[in-house]
Specification:
By secondary structure, this protein is of the alpha+beta class. It has two helices and four strands.
Length: 87
């Protein structure tokens, strides 16, 4: 599956969340990651993140796509971190 992850995390925990997300996904913009991920790795990602975040203060959104058939990505302005593996 392909996911887009967006987070709003308290500053004290941002570095830890960033490190975890980079293990599984491509960083594309401040607080935004995207990439293809298996269901097992997605479960591991969520498990690791749940150990770091405080649910009362932090927020993580996952946009899940079953297929990239109807997916289109458009960048306006400078692309912060090019992703070459997007179809």
């Amino acid at each position: 599956m392909f996911i887009i992850l967006v987070y709003d995390i308290e500053e004290k925990r941002v570095a830890k969340v960033l490190k975890i997300c980079r293990k599984y996904l491509n960083w594309v913009q401040n607080s935004v990651f995207e990439g293809d991920i298996s269901k097992a790795k997605f479960f591991k990602l969520k498990t690791e993140l749940s150990k770091i975040i405080k649910k009362e203060e932090d927020s993580i959104l996952f946009y899940k796509f079953r297929t990239l058939k109807y997916y289109e990505r458009e960048v306006m302005g400078k692309e912060k971190q090019p992703v070459d593996n997007i179809l």
